[in-house]
Structure formats: structure tokens, C-alpha cells
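Morning run. Coffee first, then this:
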Amino acid sequence: MDELRWLLMQKRRTSRQDRLEHYRRTGRVVTVASDIENPTLEGWRANPLADLDQPEPAPHSRTRRIFDIALLVVEIAAVVGFLFILYNVLNVFRTVNKEMASASVLPTLTPTPIIVAVVLPSGHTPPNSPGGARFNDAEIPAHLRPMVQGFANIPVPTPGPEQAVRIQVPAIGVNSQVVQGDSWEQLKMGVAQHPGTPNPGDKGNLVLSGHNDIFGEVFRDLDRLKPGDPVIIYTDQRAYTYIVVNSQVVEPTQVDVMDPTSQPTITLISCYPYLVDNKRIVVTAHLQSSG
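And here it is:
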């Protein structure tokens, strides 16, 4: 019986030591008075009730318990606040990303419409007329002349790698540069492309004009072209061959020959007849091949 009681006492002592050690780890006990030494079996037999009478560790005070609960509430509130802030930050990032994605979407590009013309380009008075060659204002109705003057102020497009830079028409010996814009000044430099018309090889009506009796007479023999004759248009990257399909003489105001087409087409325009220049010669060609 003594040995059993001694073992029970040892078990209770061990349990008490474990609780004290737990209190030390959790900060509930800073220092503890010297623990009771483990008695020997013989010593315990001399006073078997000594250890059983040791009081249990005092429970936490009410103030300490309230303080611990308050700390737990503060910790929970801090975690909830952090999660709330994190949620708001994620929402802000999501909103910013949506706005950036919307801003980065490029608008659908549409082809630049052909600039409305009042008269066909390259019009001028003959070089042998009084006052010499100059832009022929008489072809334009008086009420439309301000519109034509406004066209003269349109900026000339900067040539790109896909735009026409040279034209060759072997049947009539044409080998000339192509410039952008077909105002009076551009037509002095060679063959001019009407603003807003497509690049070589593209679907639509590429309109090119040139003088027939001034500034090099680049299109003097345009009326000699026949169906089947090739017209070669060069860009910085490749060459496009068009085949003449028809030729016609029209009034300067017949601007419908410049209308867009459903297939790759070029329209060559010049004044007509030679040294008279009161009409236009218009040659149409369709794309045959590219290389």
C-alpha cells in the first residue's frame, strides 16, 4: 500500500510539474519558488501525507482571464481587418486591370475614304496659252472653288513601305517616280497618287495622274495604251503588274472614274488632247500578278 501511495504521489507531482512548465511557456508564470524535491520511498514512508497535502497551483485570476480574452479579440480583429484590406486591394487591382485592358483595345480601323474631288486631277491651261501653263480654275464651278482651295492644304502623307514609289509603262516608255498627293506642286515631280486611294495590290482603285505637255510630259502618250498592255507599280518591297482593260476620254468633272472598286485596280489620268487640255484621258488596269 505504501508503494502504491508513493507512486500516486509521484504521478501527481509529475502532473503538477507539467502544468507549471506549460505556464512558464505561455508566460503565465515567470518564476517559481524552488520546487519540492522528489522524496525517496523511505522518506515518504516517514511522512506519507506530506505531498498529498500540497495545494494545487492557484487558478488564473479573473483579471488575467479578461486580459487574455481581450488580447484574443484584438488579434481576431486584426486578422479580419487585414483580410478586409487585402480584399479591397485585390478589387482595386482587378478594376485597374480591366480599365487598362479596355484602354489598350484599339479601335477598328476603316479604310481612309477617297477625298471627294470636284474635277479630275492634273488639270491645267496649255503651255502655249496666254500666261502659260497654270492650274485651270475655269474647270471648277465658282461656288466649289473654295472647296478645291481647301484640298490644297491637306497634308501630304508620308510614304510607307507598301505605298507606290515608281511606275513603269513599257508600251509608252514611262519610268517615273510616284509621289503622294496630286496637287499642283506634287504633279511637278512626276506621277502623283490621289490621297486616300489604296496601296498597290490592295483592293480598291489606286488613282495616279500626270501631266501630258508640261513638267516632263510623263503621260503624253497615255492615249496610245491598248487593252493587254502591262503597267508595273513598285513599292519598296515588291512590284505589282496591272493589265490595261480600257481607255476613255471624259469631261474634267466626270469624277466617278475615281470611285472605289471591288478589285485591285489602277486608274491613270492625264489632260487631253495634247496642248489643248480641255478633257481627260482615263486608262483603267486590273491587277494581274505580284512579285
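Residues 267 and 284 are 5 Å apart (CA to CA). Good start to the day.
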